[in-house]
Amino acid sequence: MNRLLGVALGVLTAIGGFLDIGDLVTNAVVGSRFGLSLVWVVIVGIVGICVFAQMSGRVAAVSGRATFEIIRERLGPRAGGANLVASFLINLLTLTAEVGGIALALQLASSVEPRLWMPLAALAVWLVLWRVKFKILENVTGLVGLCLIGFGVALFLLGPDWGELLSAATHPHVPTTEGHAVYWYYAIALFGAAMTPYEVFFFSSGAVEEKWTVKDLGQSRINVLVGFPLGGLLSIAIAACATVVLLPRHIEVAALSQIVLPVAQAGGKLLLAVVILGIVAATFGAALETSLSSGYTLAQFFGWSWGKFRRPERASRFHLTMIVTLIIGLGILMTGVDPVAVTEYSVVFSAVALPLTYLPILIVANDPGYMGEHVNSRSMNVLGVVYLTVILVAALAAIPLMIVTGAGR
Amino acid sequence: MLAACAPPGRSAHEVVSDALGQAGASTATVALAGRLYDDGDLPRETARTTVGAALASAQEAARDLATLEVPGPSASDLRDSALAAVNDATSVMVTARAVVSGDADPTIRVALEDLDRATQRLQSLEEGNS
C-alpha cells in the first residue's frame, strides 16, 4: 500500500512539476497565434523529455553519478568546461524567467508592481532552499502545481467544437497571417520549452539526492512515462484555451495576464484563483529547481561537496552558488527587463544548448563500464538517435530563425 | 511606398502593420477583461493588471509608429492615420483603466463600446494595410 502511495505521489508530483513559466507562456503564445497547428511539437517534445529523463535517471541510479560529473569525465575539463558555461548561462536565464514569473503571478492576485514582488520571491526561494528538505520542496510544489489542471477544466467549461480542435491538431498548417519562418521558430521554442535542460539536471541530481538504486528504476520509469505525458496534456490545454478565446479576437499573448483570461471566462473568480495558485506553485517550483541546478552543475563539475541531503555548512560552495545565481537573476529582473521576453529567449536558447547535455548522457547510457547490464536497449537507442538528430536540427536552426523572424515577430 | 528607415530586416510597411496588430490586440484584451470584470468573473486586481499590461503594449506600438521615418507624403499619411488610431485607442484604454480602478465616472458599458469601436478601427486599418 505504501509503495502504491509512493508511486501515485511520484506521478502526481511529476504532473504538477512538469510545467514552468516557459511552458505557460510559449503554449499560450502559440495557441493565440497558430491555434493547435503546433500541438505535434508538444507531443514530440514530451516523448523527447521522457527519453532524456529516463536515460539520465537510469544513469544516475545505476552509476550513482549525476549529469555534470559524467560530462566532465567523458568530455574532459576543456570541452566539459565549455559545456558547463553554456548550460550554466541558460540555466541562469531560465531561473531569471521563473523568478519573474512568480512576481507576475503574484501581481495578478494583487495588482502590485512585479518589481516589488521580485526581491520577496527570490528571498522566499532562498529560504526554502536553505531550510526545507529536498523531498518536501519537490512534493509540495509539484502537488500545488496540480492546480494548473484548472486550464483543462476551463477548456471543458468553454465548450469548444472538439471536432474542429482535433482537426486543427491533426492537420498542421501555417496560418495565412503567419510566415513559415515564424511557424518554425515557434516550433523550436515549444520544443525547447518541453525539453528544458534544467529538468534533466534536477531529475538526475535528484536521483542521487534521494539515493536511488537499481531497485528504484521501476518507479522512476513510471514517474517519467506517466507523469510527464499527463503534464504535457496541461500544456496542450493551455494552448487550446488560448485558441478558443484569444485567437478569434486577434489577441496575441504578450503578457501573463492574458493567459488567464480564458480561465476567468470559463470558470469565474474561483477557477481563476485556483489557476493563479497553480502558476505561483509551478514557477516557484521551477525557480527552486533551476537554483538547485545551478548549484548542481557547478559543484558536480568542480568536484565540490553538493546536495540538499548535506547540511549547508557541509556543502557551502554549492549553497553559495545558488545564492549568487539568485542574486544575479534578481539583478537582471530589477533592470526592468520584461520577464515574458526573458522567458521567450530562455526556451529558444534551451533548445540551442540541449545537445551539449543530451549527447554525453546518450553515450554513457550505452557504456557498460558505467551501466553494466542496464545499458540502453536497441529500441531505446533507435529512439535516442532519432532524438539526437531532432535536437541537433533544432539547435542549429534556432538562432538563424531568431534572427530572420526578429524573435518571432 | 513605405520603404526605408525601418528597423533592420523589417520594411516600414511591416512596422505599421505590426504596430496596428499589437495595438488592436491590446484594445481587444482590455475589452475582454472589461467584460469579464463587468460580469463579476474577473477580480479588480487581475483586471487592473491586465489593462496595465495592455496599455504598455499599446504605448510600445505608438512609439514604433512615432519613430518610423517614411519617404513620401502618401506613406506619411498612412503612418499618421495609424498613429492617430493607436493614440485614440490608448486614450480609450486609459479611461477603461480608470473605470476598473474605480476612479472614473463613466460606466464600464460606455468604455466597452468605445473599446469595441477602437478595436474595429485598428483591425480595419491593419487589413487595409496588409
Quick recap:
The complex is a heterodimer of chains A (409) and B (130). Chain A has 409 residues and is mainly alpha-helical.
Please outline the helices and strands.
The complex is a heterodimer of chains A (409) and B (130).
Chain A: H1 2-16, H2 21-34, H3 39-63, H4 67-110, H5 114-131, H6 134-145, H7 149-158, H8 162-170, H9 180-194, H10 197-209, H11 217-245, H12 256-259, H13 261-302, H14 316-334, H15 339-364, H16 368-371, H17 378-405
Chain B: H1 12-38, H2 44-66, H3 73-100, H4 108-129
If you had to describe this structure to a student in words, what would you say it looks like?
The complex is a heterodimer of chains A (409) and B (130). Chain A is mainly α. Chain A is 80% helix and 0% strand. Chain A has helices spanning 2-16, 21-34, 39-63, 67-110, 114-131, 134-145, 149-158, 162-170, 180-194, 197-209, 217-245, 256-259, 261-302, 316-334, 339-364, 368-371, 378-405. Chain A is globular, with a radius of gyration of 20 Å. Chain B has a single domain (12-129), classed as Four Helix Bundle (Hemerythrin (Met), subunit A), CATH 1.20.120. The A-B interface holds A 107-111, 245, 249-252, 254-255, 257-258, 260-261, 264-265, 268-269, 272, 276, 403-404, 406, 409 and B 7, 9-10, 18, 21-22, 24-25, 28-29, 31-33, 36, 40-46, 48-50, 52-54, 57, 123.
Query: What is CATH's topology name of chain B?
Result: Four Helix Bundle (Hemerythrin (Met), subunit A)
Briefly note the structural class of the backbone of chain A: mainly alpha
What is the multimeric organization of the chains shown?
A: heterodimer
**CATH homologous superfamily designation of chain A:** Hydantoin permease
CA radius of gyration of chain A: 20 Å
Fraction of residues in β-strands of chain A: under 5%
Order of helices and strands of chain B: HHHH
Question: What is the 3D form of chain B?
Answer: elongated
CATH architecture of chain A: Orthogonal Bundle
- In total, how many beta strands of chain A? 0
Mean pLDDT of chain A: 91
